[in-house]
Amino acid sequence: MFTGIIEAVGHIRRVQPKGADVTLEIATGKLDLSDVKLGDSIASNGVCLTVVSLTSDSFSADLSTETLSRTGFSQLGKGAKVNLEKAVTPTTRLGGHLVSGHVDALAEVVSRESVGRAIEFWLEAPAHLARYITEKGSICVDGISLTVNAVDGARFKLTIVPHTADETTIQSFQAGTKVNLEVDQIARYLERLMMGDKVADSHSDSQGVSLESLARAGFLK
Asked: pLDDT tens for residues 5-50?
């Protein structure tokens, strides 16, 4: 589990193909590895990776075909920068929101504009994820916990303050950049819960929440 508050920006030091899978070695920059051990999790661009080997300034992780197909790592090579965050502990400040490191899909940056000292981005999510994105809700983009400031269909706006731009890879985002997207967990679980007994039916409507189901649950009068 993570919070989406980036601790360091590292870079990919080595990409080693292993059949259809790959092993990545990631140089960790200023990330403190003194309390990291084999088997621990480190979020890399929002992807929960398991440490399989460790040095004083890097770790290696195996990426399956599932991870490569769901995330932007299939497009990143040696030298690419990545946002890093170690897993939370019981005493960690929850400065962002609860992030699992399980990426839902890729989103695309549609536009970038400077507004005062901030940077305003519009991104487009896959249509099937649009229902989980709401104004002033939380979203995780390449591992960064961010607030959605406006929504237009499957498009949503982010306003990035200078500190976030300086401490993450978001400074480099341009129109066309593909980013890892994880929607808010609470929205996903709520939708699943409201399907009730139908959730056990493999042929049930996967769209889940509707005006009818909201009314049955007592949310609409």
From this structure: 999 999 999 999 988 899 999 999 999 999 999 999 999 999 999 9
Which residue from 203, 4, 175 is spatially nearest to 99, judged by alpha carbons? 4
Supply φ then ψ for residue 32, to 5 degrees. -80, 115
- In angstroms, the CA 122 to CA 194 distance is 30
Q: Which domains does the chain have, with CATH numbers?
A: 8-86 (2.40.30.20), 105-185 (2.40.30.20), 186-216 (no CATH)
Among 6, 91, 84, residue whose Cα is nearest residue 41: 84
CA distance 107 to 109: 7
Phi then psi for residue 157, to 5 deg, are -105, 140
Cα–Cα distance for residue pair 182/138, rounded to 1 Å: 10
Q: How far apart are CA 51 and CA 40, in angstroms?
A: 6
- Residues facing residue 159 across a β-bridge: 120
145: helix, coil or strand? strand
pLDDT in tens, 66-80: 999 999 999 999 999
Cα 100 to chain centroid, rounded: 8
Cα angle 36, 38, 42 (rounded to 5 degrees) comes to 55
